[in-house]
Amino acid sequence: MKLKSAVPAVLVAASLLLAGCASGADTAGSGSAERIEFQAKDPVTIGYSVFDLTEPYFQAYAAGVKAGAAQEGIEVLIADSKSSPQLQVSGSADLINQGISALVVSPIQPSALPATISAAHQAKIPVVVGDVGVEGDYDAYILSDNADGGRQAADYFRSAFKDRSGEQKIGVIGLAPGVVVGEERIDSFEAALDGDPNFDVVSKLTGQTVDGAFKAAQDMLNANPDLAGIYAVNSNNVQGAVRAIKSAGREGQVKVVGFNGDPVELPMIAGGEESATVAQDPYGQGKLAVKTALELLNGQNPAYTDPATRTLRFPVEIVDADNLDAYREKLTSEQQ
């Protein structure tokens, strides 16, 4: 029989207030929650509050959560937040009230997490944060190794331009200001190229959406007629950059290295419009989120990459024309 624990109305109200005033920015919290004796309900059910199921990345993440749960013979309830912070707060509260045993959240606004986490902990439910950013006394935080991805992108540019003489000008199209994963991808990229006389990051602009990235790339290309490359830190930014390069008639002259490895990028790599992408594995992360949640329920310590912040970083890989077919086969086999 499922044991339900009602979420106090004051916590939901507090969450809504936080969501309403949040900037969407966040940094990883300290993970300082006291140890809680979590309680597995019968039947064991995982709740997943997903950012937005129209996004390919989160479609794959949800598929991974379902697959991980199926392997363990447990149920999954998914609440689609549809990019709405308010809907995520109410949807997470509803999952808790349905008697889930563990909650996985891909937050729209991480600053709204603390009240949701508090409500979950009152019901003896562990909270695993899946990507984006964190705040509060979460129990585990799973995300791609964004810093390593930035270094890999820099190394790819270095290899791609090894036969060119002179300084290569690079533009960077980032995410919304303050989004931690975007900052990690850019900071490590710049650090890897810092001091290299062959490269100069001449422009850093915000994209986030396809249209925003298109405008950013246009500005970069107009200001730098000799721009050699663009580092676009999500698939929307890649699409906008590719469109701007085509519009400027500079196909084949400006290399684009992206981040995500979403399905929309793969035909662009095959066609030479995008040189490479730093591919994440949201499907694998979703499976790891279930594994981590069950470990917490069993009183075990997950294999944190960084125990101090209860963070688990998931590896990323460069995908280009040379290994594109193998990558596609991997995606197909994962989701069969």
- Which runs of at least 5 residues are low in confidence (pLDDT < 50)? 1-33
CATH architecture descriptor of the largest domain: 3-Layer(aba) Sandwich
Number of domains: 2
Mean pLDDT: 90
Give an overview in words.
With 336 residues, the chain is α/β, with parallel strands linked by helices. It folds into 2 domains: 9-138 and 282-315, 3-Layer(aba) Sandwich (Rossmann fold); 146-279, Response regulator (Rossmann fold). Helices cover 42% and strands 19% of the residues. It contains 11 helices and 12 strands. The strands form 2 sheets. A 6-stranded parallel β-sheet has the order 2-1-3-4-5-11, with helices on both faces. The protein has a 6-stranded mixed β-sheet with strand order 7-6-8-9-10-12, with helices on both faces. Strand 6 (168-174), helix 6 and strand 7 form a beta-alpha-beta unit. The longest helix is centred in the N-terminal third of the chain and has 17 residues, at 56-72. It starts with 8 loop residues before the first helix and ends with a helix.
Key structural traits:
336 residues, alpha/beta, Rossmann fold, 2 domains, elongated, disordered N terminus
In short:
By secondary structure, the protein is α/β, with parallel strands linked by helices. It is built from 11 helices and 12 strands.
SSE order and pairing:
Elements: H1 9-21, E1 45-50, H2 56-72, E2 75-80, H3 85-97, E3 102-105, H4 113-122, E4 127-130, E5 140-144, H5 146-160, E6 168-174, H6 180-193, E7 199-206, H7 210-223, E8 227-232, H8 235-247, E9 255-260, H9 266-270, E10 276-279, H10 282-297, E11 311-314, E12 317-320, H11 324-334
